[in-house]
Amino acid sequence: MWKSRPDDPAERTPTQSNSPAVAAPVSVPKEPRAPEPQPKLAENFRAEVAHIGKSVKVKGELSGSEDLYFDGEAEGSVDLHEHTLTIGPNGRIRAALVAREIVVHGKVEGNVCASEKVELKRSCSLIGDISTKRIVIEDGAFFRGAIDIQKEGKPELRKPAIPAFTEEPAMAIAVPQTSFLDDK
Amino acid sequence: MRWFRGSGEAQTKSVPKGGPQRISRRSTGFAEFTRTLTGFRDPAILDLGPTSSANISFLTQYGGRVYNEDILRAAREFVSAHKPADADSIDPKTFFAENLEHPEHRFDAILGWDIPDYLHEALVKPMVERISRILRPGGILLAFFHTKDAGPDFPYCRYHISQGDVLDLEPVPDFRLQRIFNNRHIENLFKDFSSLKFFLARDNIREVLAVR
Q1: Contact in structure between A132 and A114 (CB atoms under 8 Å)
Q2: Tell me, what's the ipTM?
């Protein structure tokens, strides 16, 4: 009763010579389905985003009107205005960066200005000032500089609630300053 | 003052899978710090600890500018680059020519966390002097000091602000406790400040709010 019929498509399918001998799966008639979306290939990514490799060195002004992945060295300024700039893990930048979104994996020395968002990844090192609306910093990222969060409208000062010190009583002692001998 | 011998760097310890566990602690000193901050208009705040997005998002609520400078990491790189035989060969002037280099009276508030306990000995006093210079009169500094019950193996922690009075401590095996300050040493250290408030907590940490 379990013997497959001679016209079973599974039987007719030629087996690969190097495939192990396994029982042929029971074929279930399937309705035609829409093709599944394929994951983005590197080639597609490169086609959508301009890509500068790690051996490239740029000195001067770099500007563009498309997204850019920059993994090389740059000195001067990078201005993508309304697009996304990604500094790759090999990126070494000594330049002012301007873009809509800036993602940093590598090293940057210079001020960073993103109209929407700045992301500092775990491997990143940024020395410079940041000006943006939103910022995401991964643990391990190194940042030295100032942050200006641009807010639409008047910035609101959210006052923290007055804490209740019930769990951990503490004693406050005001110490008037007098001159002490430094015994170091 | 109690000293702990050995390298400034902690030995690498195994970190639990999924990252080190954070410990929450209520901080009276930090609550007082934030309460004072609300009285400042667009304050310039300097965080001397490692970069923390929680701290930045919390501090930017006050409407001013937030600065971040991981002074312990910079000091470690400076010390290891010079490979000195002893503490005397560390030149604080060279270090502070590149670090904490800000205009006089730039900041309204500085978060010093427990950095003095972990910093190289030669840099502690110059760092407080530099802080005193860049903090405006009336500005505040929050610093933590371990009490005598903390031993040399007391873990170094990164401080993440959770709420107005709650801090999350993330132990990381990056630095080793160098010394313990007593009250008199702390008073000496901050002798250029106009007033000091001590908050004594139960968890071996003494919190100090210094007003410039």
Answers
A1: yes
A2: 0.77
Considering the entire predicted model, what is its pTM? 0.72
Residue B53 tokens, joined? 């997005």
* Interatomic CA distance for residues B40 and A157, integer angstroms: 11
Q: For the residues of B182-204, what is the DSSP string, one character each?
A: -HHHHHHHTTTSSEEEEEE-SSS
Whether the pLDDT of residue B82 is over 80: the answer is no
B25, B26, B27, B31 alpha-carbon torsion, rounded to 10° = 140
User: B56 to chain A: nearest residue by CA?
Assistant: A147
- Name the residue facing A177 among B184, B194, B200 (closest C-beta): B194
| φ, ψ at B183 (rounded to 5°) | -60, -40
Q: Using alpha carbons, select from A138, A124, A113, A104 the residue that is nearest to residue B53.
A: A138
Long-range CB contact pairs, B86-90, < 8 A, 24+: B87/B120, B87/B121, B87/B122, B88/B122, B90/B120, B90/B122, B90/B123
Query: What pLDDT, on the 0 to 100 scale, is given for residue B148?
Result: 72
Question: What are φ and ψ of residue B150, in 5° steps?
Answer: -80, 130
Does B197 contact A174 at a Cβ distance shorter than 8 Å? yes
pLDDT digits (tens, 9 = 90+) for A167-180: 333 444 444 443 33
What is residue B46's three-state secondary structure? Answer: strand
Contact A165 B26 (CB under 8 A): yes
Residue B165 amino acid letter: D
**How far is Cα A105 from Cα A109, in angstroms, rounded to an integer?**
13
Cβ separation B61–A170 shorter than 8 A: no
Tens of pLDDT, residue by residue over A56-111, are: 999 999 999 999 999 999 999 999 988 999 999 999 999 999 999 999 999 999 99
Structure tokens at B183: 């009250």
